């Protein structure tokens, strides 16, 4: 889910408003064993973290998705739904568009609008066209959407199929939304139900998509899975090393004795999901040539100028794709998300933005530990790493394979496209162009990409 940032054409999750917090922030002393956050300011401290330490991914999951105290439970009503589509062709240009968007935000007091909402129905129509060109239409079309938001994507895709697909394709299709939020599930049913013929083909399963039991028996028929702005909100883990040559340790979140302060605990690397994800991450990096001189230099610098290392691992993405590939082995995937984020204050590779909105103003936190259910936590997606995870979960990437097995054909064909490239190929860019030629869908989404992955029979 995207929000706007006015100072450049880069998108981030903040409403169309000026940034009020300074970008500089103070440093904190870090000991080898723990790092403390400032005292908690929101009333969620005793609820997001219990009496026992939790892994960072479990802390993030609670801060975002706890049914009573999580951010999306608290703020689900702030996900915007436009009453009518924006008439881009009637706007003069970028200034006129931004003023129109700012007016919408002020009138609705909405925290954010997703791109599928801002550009409806054209954004969803582009996704539908990509499915139409790639799907095997000789079998019933089955689509799963994970995290369907307000249901605008589902309705847009089904509208497109009704108007453009062969009648038998629309009549036999099913569209299943897997939604963890009960309030959003209700909104989705209402949105799709605006077209009576859609209702019999659409259903919402209110459950956690990462829970394998919710998917039931393994399904061998081809299908599509759509994930729009889902990866950025999936829980991540954090690993830490004292210096350049120290081994990685897994990070846990713990309460201090005062019960009002959260801190990090560092433990030896033992969690299987973290270890698997780290192996995939390492496999995605180009192997460095062994060098005794380089090792000696690193050892020397680690003693003279020790530099702590922090790395965020997309363990939530790994778990989700493991589950989906196991449940739907012949699924095709379309995912869209941030490729990078501006103004990130939190340290570490692939670090998130943690942002909250109060009294109509957005502000960023300096620590993820400040998120107690009142702040959004969202991560950039490393699309090269996403491809590796996808291949690993499908079984075509073996982390410890020999030379002969590495020559086997891949089980999936994948491609990553900039949002503008994707929409120029599959969408109708003329529909989102203003009078002077400015096109926000093509011109402003510079830090978002689409990932497409389809199964192949090129396996010996």
Automatic annotation (TrEMBL):
Its main location: mitochondrion. It is an enzyme of class 2 (transferase). GO terms for molecular function: protein-arginine omega-N symmetric methyltransferase activity. Keywords: Methyltransferase, Mitochondrion, Transferase. GO terms for biological process: methylation. It is found in: Mitochondrion. The keyword Transferase applies. One of its GO terms (cellular component) is mitochondrion. Pfam families: Methyltransf_28 (PF02636). It catalyses: L-arginyl-[protein] + 2 S-adenosyl-L-methionine = N(omega),N(omega)'-dimethyl-L-arginyl-[protein] + 2 S-adenosyl-L-homocysteine + 2 H(+). Arginine methyltransferase involved in the assembly or stability of mitochondrial NADH:ubiquinone oxidoreductase complex (complex I). Belongs to the NDUFAF7 family. This is Protein arginine methyltransferase NDUFAF7. It comes from Eucalyptus grandis.
